[in-house]
Amino acid sequence: MKAAPILRVLIADDHAIVREGLKQILADTGDIVVAGDAASGLEAIKLARNNAFDVLLLDISMPDRSGIEVLKQVRQEFPKMAVLMLSMHREDQYAIRSLKAGAAGYLNKQSAPDELVNAIRTVAQGHKYISPALAQQLANQIGDDRTVPLHETLSDREYQTLMMIASGKTVSEIATELVLSVKTISMYRSRLLQKMKLRHNAELTHYAIKNDLVQEE
Fold it and tell me: Are 60 and 68 in contact (CB under 8 A)?
């Protein structure tokens, strides 16, 4: 019987402890090997340019650029490499955006190790992987004529800015974290307030809590 091919995985997460934890989980498999790891989106792209990987495990919150932006570049440069997004955010916050941007799957970091291994094998075979919770959410949307929520009209960067402001971060803090200028973040804030017909951060935060995008402290 022919042995299953070894799947080469690249891990991109800015937390060393998360990368090591993922390596530990995958070390127990016989068909998956962690062939590289990166602490930033740019580092992950550089590694992918010089090595062959079957699957990229990509954190959605990266220090140099958003995971969605990294995902889009990876899909453009390496269309054969499957990208499995990892996040601490619930599926209803970023999963659909990730799938629309070209991700092969989306997994919450709190998922069981067996689910991670199954997800990697699934996307490596060219299939999509979504959790049961996300599958139920997508099923609920079929035939739903309700108006699209205002936050779903935002661009990926505007949505990220919304989430960070609603979490209590200032424009300066967001600019520092995303390595962008205060002027750029202010522009995103202005655009999202306009699109959502809101006047200031307090209304924005109230909207995020009301729509269960963030938890009330």
Answer: yes
Q: Is residue 145 part of a domain?
A: no
pTM: 0.71
Residues with Cβ within 8 Å of 140's Cβ and at least 6 positions away in sequence, in order, are none
| Residue 129 DSSP one-character state | B
User: Range of 111's domain?
Assistant: 7-140
Tokens for 174? 């967001």
CB 102 within 8 A of CB 77: no
* Tokens 């099923």, located at residue: 139
Q: Cβ of 175: how many Cβ atoms within 10 Å?
A: 19
Q: Sorting pLDDT into bands at 50, 70 and 90, what band is 1?
A: very low
Q: What is the pLDDT of residue 146?
A: 56
Cα gap 150→189, rounded to integer Å: 14
Pairing of strands 82-87, 105-108: parallel
127 and 169 part of one domain? no
Closest CA to 156 of 145, 164, 148: 164
Tell me how crowded residue 16 is: count the other CB atoms within 10 A of its CB: 10
pLDDT of residue 216: 55
Higher pLDDT, 211 or 58: 58
Q: Domain for residue 2, yes or no?
A: no
